[in-house]
Amino acid sequence: MRMLDEARSHCDRLLPGLCSALAGVPLAELERPGSPAIELFRKYGGAGLLIPTAHGGAGAGARDAVRTMAALSSYSPSLGAAVAMHGFSVATLRAVPESVNPLVPVLLGAVAGERLLVASAFAEGTSGQGVLAPTMTARATGDGRYRLTGSKKPCSLSRSMDLITASVRLMAPDGGEPETAIVLIPAAAEGVSVHPFWDTLALAGAESDEVRFDEVPCGPEELLRLGDDPADSERLTSTGLIWFQLIISSVYAGLAASLVEDVFRRSRGSASDRAALGAGLRSALLQLDAVALRLEDGEVGTGALADALTVRYAVQDAVGDLSGRSAELLGGMAFIHSSDVAYRLAAGRALAFHPPSRTSTAAPMDAYFAGEPFVMP
């Protein structure tokens, strides 16, 4: 099918061999706990996908990311969901200006060169918090170092991560206002532990368990301070949120594309049925391309964020519609004799559970469409 052929071609160019490796493993094996998919992603250089070539990465842009994530998720939705958080973490780090923290290029080079996977312990999954809201507190120990305490659940890549990135609240020793910073610590650090959390079969291969931080030691070199300019912090927050919506929406678009592809492969339904599915999928991918193009052009203000959320919710609706209509055209025998159709139908619903929910942004979106500035809740 054209859309997935194009997506897989992009993936083959950026991460040669990965699509073929994933295609050789049954869906049920890719989606189970302990899936080989994440290590295949590492093996074929996926850790450096979004890292510029100057730092040893594949140099993918935002539009490349849409296609590559859709391609990977057409084989394994769990892989897409897991590495979406790696991509989000890398994209957030990449957005930190070198003038604010000169260590960022060094960190990105290490991630690409050593094929390190970066988990995200930002606030995803925490009701009432923004994605970049601090989930941990850092207590100063008096020697210029800190001790981190907190928890993230669910935390994708929890079993395969090499590094963990998160926003932290640095508590002021004098009782003043806390400072927000980004922390990047080794997954093997003292006080970091992983605990079972994910109880459903859907997306079980994403390793979305609980990660706890119990007085984890942290030095100043592991903290990315954002500086004193509120504009820098706001820009970083908006950039990270747009990247998150773009990547996670691409994951579920790829999942829906795999069902649409089955309809075309088996010539199910009429030409009109198939053309309608193809048009719906193409439209969703083009909407994601529009968000990606604005990212590449440097449009990361609050208006761009509101538009990215608009596209995310539209893709969310399209995934449900395309998956349901594809399953209907594939028919009852396809549903009965293989769990793949039922699995993808269930997993596709999970886009609605990624933050921010449609309900939580309803009032700000209402105000934005009425002509007011968009304010992220």
From TrEMBL:
The keyword Glycoprotein does not apply. Pfam families: Acyl-CoA_dh_M. Keywords: FAD, Flavoprotein, Oxidoreductase. InterPro entries: Acyl-CoA_Oxase/DH_mid-dom, Acyl-CoA_Oxase/DH_mid-dom_sf, AcylCoA_DH/ox_N_sf, AcylCoA_DH/oxidase_NM_dom_sf. Residues 120-216 form the Acyl-CoA oxidase/dehydrogenase middle domain. Gene3D superfamilies: Acyl-CoA dehydrogenase/oxidase, N-terminal domain, Butyryl-CoA Dehydrogenase, subunit A, domain 2. This is Acyl-CoA dehydrogenase family protein. It comes from Streptomyces caniferus. The lineage of its organism: Bacteria, Bacillati, Actinomycetota, Actinomycetes, Kitasatosporales.
